[in-house]
Amino acid sequence: MEYLNQKEQEQFSQVLEAKQIKDYTNMMFNLSQGCFNDCILDFTSSKIGEKESACLTRCADKFFKHTQRVGQRFAENNAKLMQ
């Protein structure tokens, strides 16, 4: 970024921040939709059942662990490329 002037750096930072927010929003949407579809099975009650709640917890935990692991792999591969 050293080849960008101050205004270009600010614009780049704004674009990057907007992309990060969009990516985070998409990730949370995918988590919500996927876990809901997998875990919520009983629509006869307005409350989430005990089994559904446990399923949602496991699903979200698995999703975040997977996301973390993928991020670690990208970081490892980036480090190798930078050498």
From TrEMBL:
A single GO molecular function term of this UniProt record: unfolded protein binding
Source taxon at top rank: Eukaryota
Pfam families listed in its UniProt record: zf-Tim10_DDP
Recorded GO CC terms: mitochondrial intermembrane space chaperone complex; TIM22 mitochondrial import inner membrane insertion complex
A Gene Ontology BP annotation from the UniProt entry: protein transport
Entry keyword set: Chaperone, Disulfide bond, Membrane, Metal-binding, Mitochondrion, Mitochondrion inner membrane, Protein transport, Translocation, Transport, Zinc
Topology versus the membrane: Peripheral membrane protein
Domain Tim10-like: from-to ranges: 14-76
Keyword Transport listed: yes
Gene3D superfamilies: Mitochondrial import inner membrane translocase subunit tim13 like domains (1.10.287.810)
Compartments where found: Mitochondrion inner membrane
InterPro entries, A to Z: Mito_inner_translocase_sub, Tim10-like, Tim10-like_dom_sf
Domain observations: The twin CX3C motif contains 4 conserved Cys residues that form 2 disulfide bonds in the mitochondrial intermembrane space.
Function summary: Mitochondrial intermembrane chaperone that participates in the import and insertion of some multi-pass transmembrane proteins into the mitochondrial inner membrane. Also required for the transfer of beta-barrel precursors from the TOM complex to the sorting and assembly machinery (SAM complex) of the outer membrane. Acts as a chaperone-like protein that protects the hydrophobic precursors from aggregation and guide them through the mitochondrial intermembrane space.
Family, similarity comment: Belongs to the small Tim family.
Quaternary organization: Heterohexamer.
Name of the featured protein: Mitochondrial import inner membrane translocase subunit
UniProt organism field: Schizosaccharomyces cryophilus (strain OY26 / ATCC MYA-4695 / CBS 11777 / NBRC 106824 / NRRL Y48691) (Fission yeast)
Phylogenetic classification of the source organism: Eukaryota, Fungi, Dikarya, Ascomycota, Taphrinomycotina
